Amino acid sequence: MKFGVLKDIKIGENRVIATPAEVATICSDGHEVYVQSGSGIKAGFEDSEYEESGAVILESADEIFSTCEFVAKVKEIEESEYGLMREDQIIFTCIHPAAHPEEVDAILEKKVTAFTAEDSHRYGSPNCEAAGKQGALMGLESLQAINGGKGKFVSGLAGAPGIKILVLGGGIVGKSALQVLHSLGAWCTVADINIGTMREIGKQYDERVNTVLSTKYNITKLLPEIDIVLNCVKWPKGCKDYLIDRSMLSLMQKGSVIVDISNDEQGAIESFRETTHENPRYIEGGVVHYCVSNIPSLISHSTSIAYAASVLPHFRSIMNNGVQKACEKDGFLRRSLTAYRGYLTHEETSAVQQRPWVKPEEILAISQKELDYAPRATVSRSENYYSDILI
Fold first, then answer.
1. pTM reported for the whole predicted model
2. Average pLDDT, stretch 17-24?
3. What is the DSSP string of 50-94?
4. Separation CA 335–CA 97 (nearest Å)
5. Has residue 381 been placed in a domain?
6. Among 8, 31, 96, 119, the one annotated catalytic
7. Do 259 and 229 contact (CB within 8 A), yes or no?
8. How many CB atoms within 10 Å of residue 65?
9. Domain contains 45
10. How far out from the chain centre does Cα 42 lie?
11. 221: CATH
């Protein structure tokens, strides 16, 4: 199979989906690899390194799309790339389909087979770990006086107390942020809805981290003394409520910080609006907001290495076994199937955008096989199925 590595063109994106190490492995499987020139430059990988690993360098995205049966990148498919996709092509990237209806339109119109990478990780994405750890550091930077923050030091100084942190969500992102901040001496509280998660955190940190049930009431009580809030909650799409609404900003002291790592429109933070690396902060209600959507891009070399290693097994399975067999063998890959030959196969997108969908195992004709299990990716549910399907 001909596999193509695209250069990511989203503003502020520096990562690459495959490093020379992955290219060498894919080539050793007997496949051809084509890399768009400059794909790895911002992550520290030269074109010459890809060539030494067996890749052919092509100049443009147009050449990659027209040459390759399977193409991959890190972030969403951009509007300028919609017309380059072609029928029966395999696309693997972080599509975030529920939030991008125009992107879904293009994918369905072109009848590609598309996988949304963010749903494919059995052990959680390295991007989540990177976002949590680097997001914690950006929260500390945002707290500096030159950025509108309180000007407090994380662990305190002799006679000056350290800062108080509230981490919303105890998943991979939240635990990663907690690891950094606790190690630097911050006083940390984690809010979650899972008692098991809170018990695990307490045990890991010898009960030196406070935990609290994540409710609006409890958060309201905590906010007056919190210096930095880190939102690490994957908020249900379509939920009309917030964990922190605009009125609650007045409870926070001037110069406090909210870092919205989860970064969702209509997410857990009502005052959220997406920012970029070039202009990462804004102040609303006296509170500094840091809302950059691709925090892992700040540490593009480390993140690219970790992320590429995590998705390589998916690439190899798809190319070596075919889409059907790969989805049969790996439930996490199967649940990430977003579209197949013009049909939507992503339940959350169906629920949010009110589109008909079909379950991946049905359209792939593997329902009767012994399938590897994976939990559903989100709580969104849809009974809006296609009335008939012609394959």
1. 0.91
2. 98
3. HHHTTPEEES-HHHHHHH-SEEE-SSPPPHHHHTT--TT-EEEE-
4. 13
5. no
6. 96
7. yes
8. 20
9. yes
10. 19
11. 3.40.50.720
Write out pLDDT tens, residues 316-362: 999 999 999 999 999 999 999 999 999 999 999 999 999 999 999 99
- Annotation says 31 is catalytic: no
How many domains does one find in the chain?
A: 2
Q: Closest by alpha carbon to 72, among 1, 12, 4?
A: 4
148 lies in some domain: yes
Task: Return the half-sphere exposure (C-beta side, CA atoms, 13 A cut-off) of residue 387.
Answer: 0
Is position 314 annotated as part of the catalytic site?
no
Range of the domain at 265: 126-290
Nearest to 330 by CA among 20, 60, 115: 115
Sheet holding 210-213, edge to edge: 210-213, 187-192, 164-168, 228-231, 257-260, 287-290, 281-284
Within a 10 A sphere around the Cβ of 47, how many other Cβ atoms? 17
Say if strands 343-344 and 337-340 run parallel, antiparallel, or are unpaired. Answer: antiparallel
Rounded-to-integer distance, Cα 74 and Cα 268, Å: 25
Amino acid identity for residue 154 in this structure: V
Are the C-beta atoms of residues 228 and 163 closer than 8 Å to each other? Answer: yes
- Which has the closest alpha carbon to 6: 79, 81, 100, 95? 81
Contact criterion met (CB below 8 Å) for 228 and 165: yes
Candidates 119, 227, 260, 264; catalytic one:
264
- 8-state DSSP, 10: S
Q: Is residue 81 part of a domain?
A: yes
Last residue of a domain, one of 290, 310, 334: 290
Which residue in 73, 94, 7 sits closest to 42, CA to CA?
Answer: 7
3-state secondary structure of 156: coil
Give residue 390's pLDDT: 63
| Closest of 10, 2, 35 to residue 20, by C-alpha | 35
For the record, the structure tokens of 372 come out as: 């590897």
167 pLDDT band (50/70/90 cuts)?
very high
Instruction: Give the list of residues 6+ apart from residue 204 with CB closer than 8 angstroms, or none.
Output: none
- How deeply is 250 buried, as exposed, middle or buried, from its count of CB atoms within 10 A (0-12, 13-18, 19+)? exposed
